[in-house]
Amino acid sequence: EKFEVKALLEQLGINEVNKGTWTGVEYIDLKGEWLVSKSPVDGKEIGKVQVTSREAYELVMEKAEKAFKVWRKVPAPQRGEVVRQIGIALREKKEALGKLVSYEMGKSYQEGLGEVQEMIDICDFAVGLSRQLYGLAMHSERPGHRMYEQWHPLGIVGVISAFNFPVAVWSWNTMIAWVCGDVCVWKPSEKTPLTSLACQNIAAEVFNKNGFSEGISCLLIGDANVGAFLAQDPRVALVSATGSTRMGKSVGEVVGGRLGRVLLELGGNNAIIITENADLDVAIRGALFGAVGTAGQRCTSTRRLIIHDSVYEEVKERLVSAYSKLVIGDPLNEKNHIGPLIDVDAVDNYLSAIERVKAEGGKELVEGGVLNGEGFESGCYVKPCVFEVENHFQVVQQETFAPILYLIKYNELEEAVSCQNGVPQGLSSAMMTMNMREAEYFLSVEGSDCGIANVNIGTSGAEIGGAFGGEKETGGGRESGSDAWKAYMRRQTNTINYSAELPLAQGIKFDI
Ligand code: UN1
């Protein structure tokens, strides 16, 4: 059937011309510039959204502050009930939202659906969590005393998200923050404003239906200037930001300057070590999806393969042959494996990285390049490519958000691990091996220095149940599952004296 953009937008409650500043189901109607959303799939304009002005931002913050005073008092399991309903609404809109993600961002429809599934999963997780925001009870050293800790909501949480996961990353933050009793103000990527409007509609409608005021789910539209409103604002207790290391350093500095809290989810430079004991069928499949899935635009994308000398030639041949079977084209057509990059700037970065690999002495194994002609009119479709390199090349040390894969040879296991760790970033990592000693070494304190370390799986595609994030220039934040919720709450330690005495801690005597 033919893909109808207008009907799709309608299903998600969006128009071709949209207000950009929302406090829930209501918008702030002030003048602002316009942001145009263009699809990398066909280069066509999808719609326009108004940019949030400083004045509009102030009005949003007033509502958010007011809403927090109410929302924080709603019992956590009741907050979970609202999130449960958002999960149901997302299930109903899964196909439509997945399609818009695919069309506005350029990832395959399958991956668009997968992204919405991550949102549904995190809703379920958050609902369970809403009855498990546990603190500990301690034994006091003093007689007649009781000690315990409790977790209170933080306040206003600012969420800055990237184009590559335009909807899932918002949900990792907001669903958890909402059950924790926070209110959220979201600044999505200026490259994917329409998917954010769709999410805003879905969540706001549920809050509204449940009788909650405006201000719990807010949306701002704009670029880094609008993100800076959140970073600078002492009313924003936590800024959770996903994107480039450059963006993260600037947000981290500004928020740190006012001693606010940050949760940073920045670049990766993820490697798979393929040992002599790897199951090569699994290794090739894992490496391939890791490197070319989402056109190499995941922070968890596989950028480097560190391959044992003894299997190097075989891996190389099988990889080159697998690359030759990749089909590039319209991501909404399920026959295609790879869609476009997000925009022509991304294509420029890809081309300049290829130039730099060559200049530094990299050997081209699978040729890159931009596709043109029928179906590629947007100018955003590029060929996934493979180079033989050395880890110290400057370009290899950086994250290029494109399908460029680097192959590196090793002999000793220690050498492979130090190569894998030998980059400024520390997000995801993997080892392909059937050997228990190798695998355990890789996962040990001497092994991977990343926030994510997998065995016999690629570097991307983490499940929501784990804490997601990484070390070093990746920023140190953890989102999503496990106890990542603690970042969205403040811990209070309480000591209660139920005796008629007043013994001091540490046995200190103070008598009069
Ligand atoms: C990102 O690229 O910012 O682990 C997030 C993965 C996805 C999330 C990636 N679940 O690849």
Characterize the structure shown.
The chain has 512 residues and is an alpha/beta fold. Helices cover 38% and strands 20% of the residues. The chain has 15 helices and 22 strands. The protein has a seven-stranded mixed β-sheet, sandwiched between helices. A five-stranded parallel β-sheet has the order 8-7-6-9-10, with helices on both faces. It has a three-stranded mixed β-sheet with strand order 1-3-2, with no helix packed on it. Strand 17, helix 15 and strand 18 form a beta-alpha-beta unit. The model has no long low-confidence stretch (mean pLDDT 97). 2-aminohexanedioic acid binds at residues 118, 164-165, 169, 242, 298-300, 460-462. The site of 2-aminohexanedioic acid has 11 residues, from loops. Its EC number is 1.2.1.3.
